[in-house]
Amino acid sequence: MTQQEIYNDFTRMPLAEQMSVFNRSALEIGYSCHVPGRAADQGFDIKITGRGFGEVRTVQTEAEAHVLSREPRSRAPEARDEWLISLWLKGYADVDVDGRHVRFAGDNLELRTMAEARNVSQSRAVSVYFFLPREAVRGINWTMERISKMKSSARFHPLLARYLRTLHLASRGSAIDNGAGVSEATIAMVRACALQTRDSIEEAMAPILATQFEIARQYIETHLWSPSLTTDQLMEKLHLSKRHLYKLFEVHGGVERYIRQKRLTACFDRISRSDRDVPILDIAEKAGFSDPTNFSRQFRSFFGCRPSEAREALAGRRDEVRFVQWLAS
User: Fold this and answer.
1) Residue-wise pLDDT tens digits, 107-147
2) 123, 203, 114, 218: which is closest to 165 by C-alpha?
3) Same structural domain for residues 176 and 108?
C-alpha cells in the first residue's frame, strides 16, 4: 500500500469559517478549540498535512497558539480504537494528564488513547501525530496504558522519538512506496521501545539499526570539521560498542572509511569554492588530514585528480558564475 496524502490549509478559507470548520472535525474526537483573546469568527492559523502507511497514519500540524478543551460529546467509534503518539518539532504543549500539569516538547513524547480527550494549551508549534490501531499492538496495550499515565515518555526508550522524527522527515522529502513495510517497522519499533525485551528488540532490529545509523550520520555531519571526530568519540557519544558501530557502517566499508570519504568530499567542495589564496593544505588540516602527502594520495584515489587540479578545473566555472551574478546585480 502506498502512502496517502491528507492536506487542509484553513488559512485559505474565509476568516469567519476557519475556526468553525476546524471545530466540526475536533468535536468528532472530543475537543473544542479556541484562540485565547480572539473571537471564533476572527480566524485560526493552522495547516494540516498527513500520510498513511498501512496501519499507521501521520498528521503534521503547523498552528498558532491555541487551547483544546475536552467536550462531553461522544467521539467517533473508530477514534476509540487508536493510540496517539505526539512529537513536537517546534514549540510545546501543556497537557492535563489525570489532573497533573505536564509539558511536552521536543523528543518528550506524549502517548494517549484516542478514547481519552485531554485539556491542552499549545504554543505556536509544529507537531506530528502518529496514529496506531490498538489491534496492531495487541499484547502490549496494558503497557501502553501505563506509559500514557506517566508524566513523560521516560518509559519509552528515547530511540523511538528519533525514529519517528526520522520517519517524518523521510516521508516529507520523498514518496515511500512500501507503506506496509513502514507500518510494520513502526509498530515493531513501538513494541521494542515500550517493552525493551530481547525478543521485541530482535523483531525491531531493522528500524533500530536504521535509526542508530541516522543518529551517527547526523553526528558525523555536524562534527566533520572537528579534529576530534574519531571512532572512539562516536562510540563514547552514542554509547555503542566498536563492533556495533562497525555493523551500522558495514555497507559503507566501515565507519572510518565513511568518515574519511565524507571529509574528502567536504574538502573537495571547499577547495572548489575557495579562492586560490586559501592554501589547500590548510583546508585539509582542518578536516583532520595532517599529512599532506597522505591527503593528496587519498584525494586522488577518491576523485581521480590532485587537489590542485580540482581547484584549477573549477576556477574558471566559479569565475563565470561570479560574472553572471555581477551582471544580474
Assistant:
1) 899 999 888 889 999 999 999 999 999 999 999 999 999 99
2) 218
3) yes
CA distances in angstroms from 309 to 126, 194, 274, 297, 316, listed in the order given: 46, 54, 14, 13, 12
230 DSSP 8-state letter: -
**What cell numbers appear for 77 in the block?**
467509534
List the domain range (segments joined by +) for residue 299: 231-328
Helix 159-173 crosses helix 179-195 at what angle (to 10 degrees)?
Answer: 170
pTM of the full structure = 0.83
Alpha helices in 104-158 (DSSP H): 141-148
The answer to the question of residue 202 being in a domain is yes
Give yes or no: residues 174 and 38 share one domain.
yes
Hey, what's the cell of 170? 523521510
C-beta separation of 264 from 307 below 8 A: no
Nearest to 3 by CA among 50, 71, 65: 50
Task: With beta carbons less than 8 A apart as the criterion, state whether 200 and 87 touch.
Answer: no
- Taking alpha carbons only, the member of 138, 135, 129 closest to residue 111 is 129
- The model's pLDDT over 40-89, given as tens digits with 9 standing for 90+, comes to 999 999 999 888 888 999 999 999 999 999 887 655 555 568 999 999 99
Residue 122 Cα distances to 93, 94, 103, 104, 324, angstroms: 4, 6, 9, 10, 48
Q: Into how many domains does the chain fold?
A: 2
Which of the 8 DSSP states describes residue 50? E
Q: Where are the alpha helices (DSSP H) in 28-156?
A: 141-148
Judged on CB neighbours under 10 Å (0-12, 13-18, 19+), 78 is exposed
Judgement on whether residues 47 and 195 belong to the same structural domain of the protein: yes
- Which cell is 74 given? 461522544
Per residue in 186-229, pLDDT (tens digit) is: 999 999 999 999 999 999 999 999 999 999 999 999 999 988 89
* Contact (CB, 8 A) for 101 and 93: no
Residue 268's CB is within 10 A of a number of other CB atoms, namely 19
